[in-house]
Amino acid sequence: MTSESRRRGRKDRLNQTTEPDSRKPVWPGVPGGRLKPLKPDEIALVEETALMLLETLGLSQAIPSMIEKVCSAGGELTEDGRLLFPRSLVRTTIDGARRGFTLCGQRPEHDLLIEDARVHMSTGGAAPGVFDLDTGAYRDSTLADLYDAARIVDRMDNIHHFSRSVVARDVEGSAAMDINTAYACLMGTSKHVSISITEPQNVTAIADLCYRIAGGEAAFRARPFLTVMVCHVVPPMRFAEEACEVLEAAILAGFPVQLISAGQAGATSPATIAGSLVQAVAETLAGLVFARLVDPEVRAIFAPKPLVADLRTGSMCGGGGEQAILMAGAAQMGRHFDLPTSSIAGITDSKCLDAQYGAEKSLAVAMAAHAGSNLVTQAAGMQASLLGVSHAAYVSDNDLLGNILRTIRGIEATPENVAADVITGVCRGEGHYLGDPHTFSRMKSDYFYPVVGDRRPPREWQADGARPVGDVARDRAKDILASHFPSHIPDAVDQDLRARFDIRLSRQQIGRD
C-alpha cells in the first residue's frame, strides 16, 4: 500500500466517527469477518489459481487503452488477443489498492467508512419489474418506482446505501435512461447511491449532474456521493469492451467504482462452487489492475459476485445454500486481500413475503455479512431471482437486516458485560432482573426491536386483525410514499438540473409543486 493511499485512508477515517453509538443496538459498519468457510489452504489455492489464470490465460477483448497500460506495466498481449497479467503486477495492485475510504452521503450523517470488515447493507438489482403496492401483481417498473424505492430506503435505518434497484422501462434511449436513473436515485435519498452507466459517452452528463448537485467538480471529487457499478467482464474471462470504456471514463471523472464479475455457475463459470469463485476472483482482480493503472488512488471496490444456476433448467436460482456459501467465500477472499469488498446476497427466488422469502434472504445475507463483506447488495427489496422489487419488502427487510446486524455485533464478552456484580447483587436482593437498573440501562443499547415484526401474543394479534407482516409493511411503505419527499437537494439546484438535462420526473412527483 502506498504512503499516499495510507494518508488518504487516515484522512477519510478522521472525517467519520468510527465508534458505534452506545445508545443503539446496531449501526452502519458493524465489524464482521468471523465466518471463514474457506480453510487457509483453500484460500491459498484459490489465490494461486486465480493468479495463474491471469498470468497464463488472461482475458480477451481488452480495449486499446487497457492493452497499452497493462503492457507498459509488464503485461503481454498474445497472438490470439488475450491480455496476460503477470502475478507481480497483480500483487502490486492488491498491495497498493486504496483502503479505508468513505462512500459519502449527500449529507455527512450517511457517510460509510469502507474499512477492514465493517459491514453495510444495500439495495441493488436492476430488476425489470415491481410487485405493485396496491394490487400485488407483477408489472413493468417505471422511473417513479425507482424514485419511490429511494424514498423508502431514505427512511430505513438498517439499509445504509441505495443501489439502483429497478430499470425505468418507461424511459427510452440510453442517455435519457442513465441521466434520469441518477437523478431519481439522488433526489430520492441523501444516502450514498450506486448506479450503472450504459455507454461511455453518458458519463460526462452524469458527472455534470453530480458536480452541480455538489456545488462544483472539486466539491464532488472531495466527497463523491455516487458510485459507478461496472460489470467489466463478460464471463468467462472476457472483457466487456464498452463497460471498460465506461470504467475508465468514470474513474477519470472522479467516481468511486465497483468492479463486478457476475458469471453464472454451470453456464458462464464452472459448475463447482470453488471453480466459480476462482474465475470471479481472477476477473475482478483484472478489473482492479486496470482501474489502478487509470488512477492509482481510485476508490475501487472488489466485487466478485458469481451467481448460481439451477442446473436442471439453467435458470438463475439465488436463494439456495450454494449461492449463500459462494458469497461468503467471495467475501472471505476480499478480507484475505484486505480489499474494500462488495458481495451480492438476498436474491430470494420467492415472489412474495412468505416463508421461502425470509429463509433464503436471511441465510444469504447473514453469511455474506458474517464473512465481512463491506457492502452487501441486493440485501433488501429484491424478489423473484432479481426480476422484481417489492417496495413493501424494503420495510420488512429493514427489520430483518437489523436482526442480522445484531448477530454480527456478537456477544461482546467483557468484564463489564459478563455482569458478575449484577448477578451477585440480584441473587442477594430481589432475585430477578426485571427492575434492576442494569436491565434498564442496557435494554436499548443491547437489544434490537423490530418495527413491523409482530411479537404480541396470538390473541392480541388476532384481535387486531391477524395481519401478516407483508400487509403491515405495505401500509408502512404507502405512508412513507404519501408523506416523505426528501428536500436535501435545494429547489434552485433542482430547477438548474431541469434546465440543463432531460428530467422526466415532474416537479409534482417529487413534491415540489
From TrEMBL:
Residues 1-33 are annotated as: Disordered. GO terms for biological process: methylation. One of its GO terms (molecular function) is methyltransferase activity. Signal peptide: none annotated. Its EC number is 2.1.1.-. It holds the Pfam family MTTB. The keyword Methyltransferase applies. InterPro entries: MttB-like_sf, MTTB_MeTrfase. Keywords: Methyltransferase, Transferase. Belongs to the trimethylamine methyltransferase family. This is Methyltransferase.
